[in-house]
Amino acid sequence: MRNRTWAAAVGVVLVAGGCGAQEAPPPAAAPPPPPPQPTRELVTWADTMCQATDSLTRGQLEFEGLELDPAKPDEFADMHLYSYLSSADTGLENLASEFSGLPPSGVAAGDELAKGLGAGLQRILPEVKALVGDPVTSPRGDFGEMYERARKFNELLDSVKPPGPDYPALVAAEPQLAAAHHLAPRCQPPAPPPPPEAPPGPLPAAANGTDFGSCADGECQILVTGEPKVRVGDNEFTITLTEKSVTLKDYGAQGASSTMRTGMGGKASWGNANTGKKLEMTVTAVNAEGAVLDFKTVTQ
């Protein structure tokens, strides 16, 4: 009897223990406070920094974007080179001043970046001035000489690098600078780049193939490769190609000459005041293999 009473008592204790209330979970941790709002001065600093950084990046890519072939000089390439060099020193000087003239931002790494880029541009400025020369008194030089000066300028400009983390890295690491960056008008995300060009397919068949003699009457569709001379009606052309463009230097019947350049689907025309006729040309296709050109003569 005594044993049964003891067992019953143990059972009561066990049941009572199993019915106890569960403990409440600990309270969630408070979220971190938001970063302080950036000052107007920091927003202005970020705005100028974005503009200057973008200018430096575009400048470092500009020479490559000219797509010049030193082995194939022409009027267009000469003009692009001269334009590229003629304002190189003043543009560089202004950009150096933009970086160096930034006031303290309150972000030490940002101030170091601006100071370092400004000093880097100032460092190469004397060499750039020597490459550019005086546009009034210095000889322009031939294409090869200009190309070499432009190449050296591009090399110097490309040597200017951030002394530490670049601007996007600082924005990612500094919450207050990130807040200022998002408010600055010139720090908005750039437009997405255009989709890459699809590789050109094979050239279509030209109606007259490589029979340049078929162009004598001013109407033909021909396949051009290399650098041929072609007479079309009263016009004689020297044609040069790249994988994206066609350049035609015309030696007209009236003694004048002109140069035209266009790309895929592009058009050009040459008028003749004596005959009242106009020669029209369309680039039907162009790639690294050559170009298909369509010529026709119409009455003006």
Tell me what the structure shows.
This protein is of the alpha+beta class and 300 residues long. It folds into two domains: 40-187; 212-299, no CATH class. Helix content is 42%, strand content 19%. It is built from eight helices and eight strands; from the N terminus they run ααααααααββββββββ. The chain has helices at residues 2-18, 40-65, 75-86, 88-100, 108-132, 143-158, 167-173, 175-183, and strands spanning 220-224, 229-232, 235-241, 245-251, 257-263, 267-272, 277-287, 290-299. The strands form two sheets. Strands 1-8-7-6 form a four-stranded antiparallel sheet, with no helix packed on it. A hairpin with a 2-residue loop joins strand 7 and strand 8 (290-299). Helix 3 crosses helix 6 (143-158), helix 4 packs antiparallel against helix 5 and helix 5 (108-132) packs antiparallel against helix 6. The chain starts with a helix and ends with a strand. Mean pLDDT is 85; it is low at 1-19.
